[in-house]
Amino acid sequence: MAGIGSKLVLIALAVCGAAQAQTPSAEVRKFLKFDQPLIALTHVRVIDGTGAPARDDRTIVLRNGRIEAITDGAAPPPAGAHVVSLEGRSVIPGLVGMHNHLMYTASINLDEDDKIPQPGFLVTELAFSAPRLYLAAGVTTMRTTGSIEPYTDLNIRSKIDKLQMPGPHIDVTGPYLEGEGSSFPQMSSLAAQDHARRTVAFWSGEGATSFKAYMNIKADVLGAAIDEAHKHGRKLTGHLCSVDYRQAAALGIDDLEHGPVFTDSEFVPNRKKDQCPSSAEIAASWEKLEVDSKPVQDLIRELVARKVAITSTLPVFEQFVATRPVLSKQQMAMMSAESLRSHLNARAHAAAAPGRAARLEAALKKEMAFELAFVRAGGLLLAGPDPTGNGGVLPGFGDQREIELLVEAGFTPVEAIRIATANGARYLGQLERIGTIEPGKDADLVVLKGDPTRRIADVENVEIVFKDGLGYDPAKLVSSVKGMVGVR
Fold this sequence. Notes:
Layout: H1 4-21, H2 26-29, E1 32-34, E2 38-46, E3 55-63, E4 66-72, E5 82-85, E6 89-93, E7 95-97, E8 103-104, E9 124-125, H3 129-137, E10 139-143, H4 150-161, E11 169-171, H5 193-206, E12 210-213, H6 219-231, E13 235-238, H7 245-251, E14 255-257, H8 279-287, H9 294-305, E15 309-312, H10 314-318, H11 329-334, H12 337-351, H13 356-376, E16 381-383, H14 397-408, H15 413-420, H16 422-427, E17 445-449, E18 462-467, E19 470-472, H17 474-479
Parallel strand pairs: 2-5, 2-6, 7-10, 10-11, 12-13, 13-14, 14-15, 15-16
Antiparallel strand pairs: 1-19, 2-3, 3-4, 6-17, 8-9, 17-18, 18-19
Helix pairs in contact: 5-6, 14-15
Signal peptide: 1-21
Organism: Massilia solisilvae
Domain Amidohydrolase-related: 91-469
């Protein structure tokens, strides 16, 4: 694995340099508030992403797409700078979304027996609306963490980097590395090691910069995929089930998605090799475990020792808890009529199941406790919303909710912001240029009205998003895609 981080840094720097050399298209310019080469953001509160306390009344100087300096607010801005006065505002680093998709659960159609009919669970590519919503929410870099249309994702990345369309920088994950028996007909079916190696090698050559294994992959096939990914300087993550967390860690996996309470099958009694137990069996096995118990603490120690990251995706689980808040009016306005109908029906169906909300709430709380314990033990926690599930997690909005839920889990606001920014940059090998607010780094910044260190919900109050020094108007980006989530 030596050199993986440095290789990804070089890829990222090349992409960034190409983006800065481009001239914004007319399509991108429609959403720009600021495009001056020298900008001074004055009298602003700086939450730098390192976990350090906020610093009040600072001036951030941006020059040619980079952060040139951070000075005391009393100091005069540089001569010729375009001055943006930001009293009462906070600036955080651009969010680094680590379980994001350019696809979405468009609708959930159930048979009379509450099962999904053939051909299975289908998702819709959101090539138009998702990049805009991510950027509007402050996501300036994201990993797709599984792709249904990898060529579409690669082409979107190219268009964004050339400033032909608005959106975040994208680490494109190749197509899902899935085994046999998937409920998703849009996924592959890898039954042999050779097939996995050829798939990883091919998509590495096509431009995928990471990979994701899925629930039904067999252990030997997963091991081959991990080995091949590392040969190409790529990292591999997994939403697993047939392979448990300890097995995957021993095979050299880099990251595990969602956290274990909903996905780690190792504690299911009489589990069969290379077979995925039901979600009910996994849930039942974790109901009997406490986070401070020896088996769970041993798992945490092993993951930390093997340097396996965990990606927190609390919003997607929260949306299955019928007693949790429904979507805001603004989020509902983003959705197509069919997507909204489907999501509300799914919530109503969940609410009708006796005791289900209480069980899921308890599981959500346990997952939160696990993630807090993992970090306190020295683990690297990443953040992402996973806009799939029952359709209740929207691109961008979910990234903001993830930060709020991390605070609910027991992290301080500055810790939660660090998880959503610097930690993702570190995992991607890009911390030298993004993830924190420091001189010399790329000008990827989010201007918030309010102070999220005192009221974490202020992460939703995005007024300006700077990406490579260009300042985007979130309100315009959001209004341009009303009613489109689930359609395009």
